[in-house]
Amino acid sequence: MSLGNEVEPFRAAVHEAVDHLVDHWRALADERLPVEPLRAPGATAAALPAEPPEQGEPLDRILQDTWDTVVPGLVHWQHPAFLAYYPTSNSPASVLAELVTAGLGVQGMMWATGPAATELEQVVTDWLAQALGLPGHFLHTSGNGGGVIQDSASSAVLVAVVAALHRASHGRWRGHGTEGRYRLYRTDEANSCVAKAARVAGLGESAAVPTLPGTARMDPEALRGRIAADRRDGAVPAIVVATVGTTNTCAVDPLAEIGRICREEGVWLHVDAAYAGSAALCPEHRWLNDGVEAADSYAVNAHKWMRTGTPCNVMWTADRRSLTEAMSVSPAYLRNDATDAGHVVDYRDWQIPLGRPMRALKLWYVMRAHGLTGLRDAIRHDVRMAALLAELVAGEAGFHLVAHQLGLVVFRLDTDLRTREVAESLAGDPAVALTASAVDGRQVLRAALGSPLLTEATVHRVWHTIRGHARSGGPAPAAAGAR
Ligand SMILES: Cc1ncc(COP(=O)(O)O)c(C=O)c1O
């Protein structure tokens, strides 16, 4: 970095970038921008030079090109009418932290390479565990447990699987691999990342545990039966992945019963609370985690519903030894006195990659800037907005409410054909983004409310748009005329 030539243009460009961002957020809030681009595949690539620049270019030109060429081709996840998948909500505090983190440029793979980065992460994950009402044995201060910031819920599941394999095999797995012996249990409602983690860890595919009749929740007795059958076949049950807030319908697995079975059987229990876990900030939603005391690990995506930009998954374990023993590899070039003395946390042993940025600053900024009260208010607002949408859906002839939990509203029309038609029509409307899916073999539409810019007016506008598509096979006149 040349302080003479690079730093002052950077200072100016950062001011300009912030102006662009604030204007962008205002345009999203006023719905002056569509949620999704109406661009054919390849349009953005065609607008970019095929060759890299030989000479350096000024930052302000690169910044302007971002807005002219890239931003128009983006799906705007922060748009108030972005109701697809689950949200990834952001905030100015989070953006500021990302800038400062990048500027400090720390690589915090071990305590020795970033002492304050590591200790801040220990403190903020302990803060968040307390704020969510999680058991004390997940805290670093407990001695056996602790939290770590991963990039994604997918990584958290994979790390849990690896720790479970280590524990179930009494360490044998490290030298011998999986040998086709170990089993992972999940339902078909678990996120796709669970099946992927099983594959990546060498466990292969296994039959899903059935759900309780008429629900999307794991059937504990069926789980018990599967574990017993696998033991009879000589397999080793290693891990159950339960979900608090499934992706499709936000169903909550019965943790207490599952946890009891895991304890009796000595099987690792990982709880994937990627979306719904944030709601436990509010005491009235803490029932979601009933039974979590028996979990060996638990993870929530702060980047979904906690005003923290992606990536920021927070994972806790009650058994950090299994995790670090499974993961640690210590060549000479990573040895240092602090590690050898055993008094510090080296986060390289809590994750798959070796290197990592300073991850904790973002969560620290967000928790301080919003306070728990601000984060709770945001969740309560979205839950109220979802209740409003659910009420509008339930009161409309020809519409059927399929599921409504927290910020998620799942609905269908009278027939699968009608639902599909409306889903296709909505997919061509850039003013709203929903997700088409299937529940119990029937077509549905999912609306997940959680944009930081969501207002009651947006909910009414979105509902008007959906109804317009259902009535005419196209956007409602007022909604279409608005853009
Ligand atoms: C329940 C659940 N688990 C895991 C994931 C995957 O999250 P990530 O993209 O952070 O891996 C999702 C994504 O929506 C989810 O809903």
Count of DSSP E strands? 10
Please state roughly what percent of the residues sit in beta strands, choosing from under 5%, 5-15%, 15-25%, 25-35%, 35-45% or over 45%: 5-15%
Name the poorly predicted regions. 478-483
- The CATH superfamily title of the largest domain: Type I PLP-dependent aspartate aminotransferase-like (Major domain)
Order of helices and strands: HHHHHEHHEHHEHEEHEHHHEEHEEHH
What is the correct CATH architecture of the largest domain? 3-Layer(aba) Sandwich
CATH-defined topology of the largest domain: Aspartate Aminotransferase, domain 2
Text of the CATH class of the largest domain: Alpha Beta
The DSSP helix count reads 17
Number of domains: 2
Shape: globular
Chemical compounds bound to the protein: pyridoxal-5'-phosphate
- Pairing-aware structural class of the strands and helices? alpha/beta
Instruction: Give the distance, in angstroms, between the N- and C-terminal Cα atoms.
Output: 45 Å
Specify the helix fraction band. 40-55%
The major sheet is characterized as: 6 strands, mixed
Instruction: Report Rg.
Output: 24 Å
Largest beta sheet: strand ordering:
1-6-5-4-3-2
Mean pLDDT: 95
